[in-house]
């Protein structure tokens, strides 16, 4: 099932894959990392002027990493603004995705958090460094295959 935005992208020859709709009826699209920056600029010009949130997750142990963008088209006098969810998947070995900081400034700390927790490198981000963990931390704590250093389970708490 193709949504309104997906049909518009097809009409203009922009490569993507429709992932259907979520439980709220919000269209979800998959964009390749190499196409993401140009599609982001086009979406901004098309009217998606608000980045509601950006997050990332580990799809499966040893599998892909995903960066997720929730975009909203804010217009004066519109009660139910259009929304879209964009997913960009990156390989675990070299997880590089273009940063959209220069399109939506609000992605700054959100992309930094995704880098800090999952190790996704956002190309052209102005200050991509750890934000939650100390700079000396080794590894990416939210990856499913992460092993915590010096972790000892308490057997008897009493």
TrEMBL record:
It is found in: Mitochondrion inner membrane; Plastid, Chloroplast thylakoid membrane. Its main location: mitochondrion. GO terms for molecular function: NADH dehydrogenase (ubiquinone) activity; oxidoreductase activity, acting on NAD(P)H, quinone or similar compound as acceptor; quinone binding. InterPro entries: NADH_DH_suC (IPR010218), NADH_quin_OxRdtase_su_C/D-like (IPR037232), NADH_UbQ_OxRdtase_30kDa_su (IPR001268), NADH_UbQ_OxRdtase_CS (IPR020396). SUPFAM superfamilies: Nqo5-like (SSF143243). It catalyses: a plastoquinone + NADPH + (n+1) H(+)(in) = a plastoquinol + NADP(+) + n H(+)(out); a ubiquinone + NADH + 5 H(+)(in) = a ubiquinol + NAD(+) + 4 H(+)(out); a plastoquinone + NADH + (n+1) H(+)(in) = a plastoquinol + NAD(+) + n H(+)(out). Keywords: Chloroplast, Membrane, NAD, NADP, Plastid, Plastoquinone, Quinone, Thylakoid, Translocase, Transport. The keyword NAD applies. Its EC number is 7.1.1.-. Belongs to the complex I 30 kDa subunit family. This is NAD(P)H-quinone oxidoreductase subunit J, chloroplastic. It comes from Zanthoxylum piperitum. The lineage of its organism: Eukaryota, Viridiplantae, Streptophyta, Embryophyta, Tracheophyta.
